[in-house]
Design a protein that fits this description.
Length: 362
Amino acid sequence: MIMALFRLFTVLLVLVMLPLSQASAQRSYSGNTLGCVSGVPEVSSQDLNADRGLGVCNEKPIHQLQFVPGRQDLGTIDFFIRSCWSWHFSNPCLTNTSGNNFGRYSVEVGDTSLEEGLIYLTGTNGDSLKVTLEFVHPARPAEPLTPGVETTTLYPGVTDSRAGPVSIRVSLAPGESLISDSYSGSFDLYVYQCEWWEWRPLCKNAPGEGGAPALLAQPVRFQVGMNPDPMIKISGLEDMVIDGSGSGDITANQTFCVFTTDSAEFNIRGDSLNGDGSFLLRGESITEEVIPYSVRVQRLGNTRRPRNLTEGQVARKWPGSNQENCGGQENMQIEIGIDRSDIGNPTDTLYQDVLTLTVTTE
């Protein structure tokens, strides 16, 4: 007779509940509640440890940018970041004894309308202006910031609980131009302290083993605004050589460009070097001989009628192009007219004038 013996094996399952203080040591959060100055803050080490020695000093409620035609750079947002290594709640932020490993951190930006890795500012006309961001630290090369992507650079922290100066450089995205007279927007800044070890340290995803690197419990929101001063530029004008032969009246014209921010309306004034209330061509050798001429301007592709200029007076008003150099096109035309009857019987062979066109915004 064969007997089978069966032995019962049991498995003991044990659930261990860590105290809250031990669990939180794996990843600590900074409430970013401490004052932020460039020197040593007037707070105790215990206060710093309670806030994990991590903070962002964003002192301005709105950071104003400045648009300059022909430049992509809109300016920098200057602020401070404090990041000192404090291990556990009971350890102070000590003087740096570990080189650049001391309080290293990474950053990340995000906003509510991420698309193509760009940040958007909204204009008063409802248009969107694409801008790019770069994080600038005095001890590291600038790194472009892609929304939702942690920086690859690990930035050195500070010693003795100080806050170090940093900035975010804001630029127009390639091909962008302004349409509205003002823009505003916001983005969130995340800061992640890194683990202390050198080999592939984690920052955003650091579990905190062997220490307790911190991150901001809530990101810091940066508000930006831009109210560009109206800019204006005239371009494309060239010298004109007019053929006076023939028997009829003489006309000659050329096109040019007037750029204004936000397509602001502009005024134009014509001044003659030889004139005094009239536009006059003067003889090159027989200077007492003058020939009057007329100046007429019009906007191309516009229903407004051409307008004759009076020498030395302002004529109002035309909408400018919102692209510098009109995007390679022209938006204005000037026409010079000479009545054959005003020429008479000229004795000189060359008559000339310097016509100055001045454009101003409203």
